[in-house]
Amino acid sequence: MGLNLRRLLTIAACVIAVVLPSAAAFADGAHDHTQFGHDITIGPGEEASDVTCFGCSVHVRGKVDGDVTTFGGGLVLEEGGEVGGDVTSFGGNIRLDKGATAGGGVTVFGGRLHRDPEASIEGDVTSFSGGFWLALIFGLPLVFLAGLVLLVVWIVRRLTRPTMPVPARV
Questions:
Q1: What is the rounded average pLDDT of the residues 97-121?
Q2: First-to-last CA distance in the chain?
Q3: Which residues fall within 8 angstroms of residue 19, CB to CB, at 6 or more apart?
Q4: Distance CA 86, CA 99 (A)
Q5: 2, 106, 110, 131: least surrounded by Cβ within 10 Å?
Q6: Does the structure show a pLDDT above 60 at 163?
Q7: Rounded to an integer, what distance in angstroms lies between the CA atom of residue 59 and that of residue 93?
Q8: CA-CA distances (angstroms) from residue 67 to 32, 104, 150, 157, 167?
Q9: 27-50 burial, b if ≥16 CB within 10 A, otherwise e?
Q10: Distances 88 to 42, 72, 92 between C-alpha atoms, Å
Q11: What is the overall mean pLDDT for the chain?
Q12: Following DSSP, what letter does each residue of 32-56 receive, concatenated?
């Protein structure tokens, strides 16, 4: 049993080692930015197509033609910063400073939206603030998975339990 677990962990580590670094290879254009754990900054005068950040934050002072999405990090659209598409944050805050422009919708899931009155949002604003939503989306599947593991362990123990001989009646 220990050998199978070790083999499974080795396979999982190999898959993660191959998939995570190759995510940038799936970017459509030369100006797409995708990062894992390293903040992304689009400076003044810089342009990008789409920006995606896993476990990091995005700061936009320049222009993003497409969408900006963060998972486990925040987004700051600073003065003069412009996003042509949607702005979405899962598990992080979004801050729109004075003069910032979001051409699409703004969605905050498990964080908060801080918006200056002079910031422009052309699409819909959707906010699921607070940790409840994160716990619901990420915690509920983990509870379900734990229940499945416990069920499998119970079934395996039940099937591998030695049978007791029945005493003969006299």
A1: 90
A2: 43
A3: none
A4: 17
A5: 2
A6: yes
A7: 12
A8: 10, 8, 41, 50, 73
A9: eeeebbbbbeeeebebeeeeebbb
A10: 16, 11, 9
A11: 82
A12: -EEEESS-EEE-TT-EES-EEEESS
Domain ranges of the chain: 22-129, 131-160
Rounded to an integer, the average pLDDT of 149-168 is 84
Read off the tokens for 68.
């900006």
Q: Looking at residue 165, what DSSP letter applies?
A: P
- Could you tell me which of 134, 120, 60, 124 has the C-alpha nearest to residue 90? 134
pTM (two decimals): 0.63
Q: Which among 69, 104, 52 is positioned nearest to 83, based on CA atoms?
A: 104
| Angle at alpha carbon of residue 42, lines to 41 and 48, rounded to 5° | 130
Average confidence (pLDDT) over 12-28: 51
Q: Report d(CA 106, CA 95) in Å as an integer.
A: 11
Read off the tokens for 89. 């944050």
Mean pLDDT of 126-131: 76
